[in-house]
Specification:
Organism: Pyxidicoccus parkwayensis
Order of helices and strands: EEEEEEEHEEH
Number of helices: 2
Radius of gyration: 13 Å
Strand content: 35-45%
Mean pLDDT: 93
Shape: globular
Distance between the termini: 43 Å
Number of strands: 9
Protein name: Protein CrdC
Helix content: 10-25%
């Protein structure tokens, strides 16, 4: 039996870096103005910034530079435990889309991880 498939993702960029989120975890997409969003760029040691903010149903917010919707089903490849630990448990695996590997992140866990990098700001 192969890896499980996921359908419905948001493919995002933080600078040149790729991130994927399950669409059902995103309650809304908003502009960053007036939002207290944790910038995904922080995970890559880049200056904060965002063009869009992904909002979770619980109120968490992650800022990304770009996003596109991917509706097709893709298998989730497992992530090495060391990578999961380094991401604060937010890395769920990898998906191969458009000939590239995209880290599949849990939105709420990733936001918590980014806030930790920001010193809880």
């Amino acid at each position: 039996m192969g890896p499980p498939d996921v359908r419905g993702m948001l493919l995002c960029h933080a600078g040149a870096h790729r991130l994927a989120f399950l669409a059902h975890e995103v309650a809304a997409i908003a502009s960053p103005e007036g939002r207290d969003a944790a910038s995904a760029r922080r995970a890559f040691r880049m200056p904060d910034g965002a063009a869009r903010v992904l909002l979770s149903a619980t109120g968490g917010a992650v800022g990304v530079d770009t996003l596109e919707i991917e509706a097709e089903a893709h298998p989730v490849l497992p992530a090495p435990p060391v990578a999961v630990a380094a991401s604060g448990g937010s890395l769920r695996g990898f998906v191969l889309v458009q000939g590239r590997l995209w880290p599949l992140m849990g939105l709420v866990d990733f936001e918590r991880f980014l806030r930790g990098l920001m010193g809880g700001a």
